[in-house]
Amino acid sequence: xxxxxxxxxxxxxxxxxxxxxxxxxxxxxxxxxxxxxxxxxxxxxxxxxxxxxxxxxxxxxxxxxxxxxxxxxxxxxxxxxxxxxxxxxxxxxxxxxxxxxxxxxxxxxxxxxxxxxxxxxxxxxxxxxxxxxxxxxxxxxxxxxxxxxxxxxxxxxxxxxxxxxxxxxxxxxxxxxxxxxxxxxxxxxxxxxxxxxxxx
Length: 200
Known about the structure:
Blueprint: H1 10-22, H2 28-41, H3 50-58, H4 65-71, H5 80-95, H6 103-124, H7 134-150, H8 152-191
């Protein structure tokens, strides 16, 4: 259940991840690249393995992997429906195919049909039943492929925006934290009767 709805709610999970990202011991640009990779991954149809996708993208970009994990939180129960609709519409437009406007019923029935095919064909491996891939093929061409293709452009746009917003935010936070830590260190040295520049 915690994988679907985090303990304490999504708002608390977001605050925790934001706090963790700000405290990462890495450069603002590496952290921002990781966040961008995670955000882009949220626009892919690889539900359940978005972090692996984000890590695969962040690695060659020299992005921070923990920040990439945080970036995947861009995709959540509040954003998955609009992200899915945008990706599907964009993908069908690029591919020149038709998008079913009744997206919820259409997606549900196609996901259900694909799941039935997987289950029935698995059973067919051990019985005399005939394998049938009709629903799975339909799901691939009408949902998965358009989603994959259509997620590239909006994913890149969202990832780029998040990258450029993250760099100054992380930079300011890290400078503020270094200043705060230095102040605390100077106070400790002063209590110990040492000069501010004396090594602790």
